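S1.2 Input.
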Amino acid sequence: MKTFRVAVIGCGAISGNHINGILSAGHKVCALCDIVPENAKENIEKYGLGDIPVYTDYKEMLDREKPDSVHICTPHYLHAPMCVEALQRNINVLCEKPLCISIEQLHAVLRAEKESKAKLGVCQQNRYEKNMLWLMDFIKEHGIRSALGLVSWKRDEAYYASGEWRGTIQEEGGGVMINQALHTLDLLQLFCGMPTHLISHVSNDYHKDCIEVEDTAVAHFEREDGVRYHFYATNNATADLPVQFQFVTADGKKVFATNNIITVDGELVSVSDSVSPANPHMVGKTVWGTGHAILINDFYTCVQEGKPFRIPGSEGAKVVQLILSMYHSHGNRIKTML
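S1.3 Output.
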């Protein structure tokens, strides 16, 4: 396989998962970009990247280095414009979630993806977790009658103080839904299918003094065939609880699932390690899962072989559409944004 020259934009906490994944897949990190150069230099030392250039202007980096690919690990509001700039230069892009924070940004990214010769991938790595892959196959076989997704995590004032963009409408684009709960909702819609309508309520219950976005959300999603599935998320918990899914299948089986446990009608299911490749490294928070390295390796395999990637822009767009629709519902039944 070709060794790709990869640049990383944004050197915060999540960048370590990307650098680790790039190196594990056998590719070269050719440059780093961050508005705080010290952040990039810390990553160079930590991951032994050698004498690579550090930039504070990503456009300058793209023009000078002409990398094969770029990974975007910046605050949310920068994802879409950076994707567009790279795709217009026919540079492959792997973007952290969310793909964007507005419907206007979404249209711009999808248009740039369509017009580019390069490939766009979105880092929704929980789709690669072995239990979630098993569950996807199980639900395809048995169908869905009803479903529920739950996220209950802790995010306090210290967390929101860690970055000026956090908790803001203009730069984060929302709260618990577009940040913490996005991966779980993405999986729920993957299992249940995109809805045609929804009713949602979002509120700021405990973080009024430190954020301007929601810390709690509930939504009811309706499929065209009348099946409904439901979602609840909060970051007001006093400790992170395991993400949960519950299903009643079309043939009446009762399923409970987390990233680590699946039961069917109360019986524990053993998911073989052969379902997905083992991830040799775990970087960062455990709630990020172990899928980054597997996803990154798959992305470059698809680029090299000219195959469709599992999560292109059109797939990454689905959960963004649902979240933006939730923000526009205000308790009313509305059509899902397209």
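S1.4 Remarks. Residues 274-288 have pLDDT under 50 and may be disordered.
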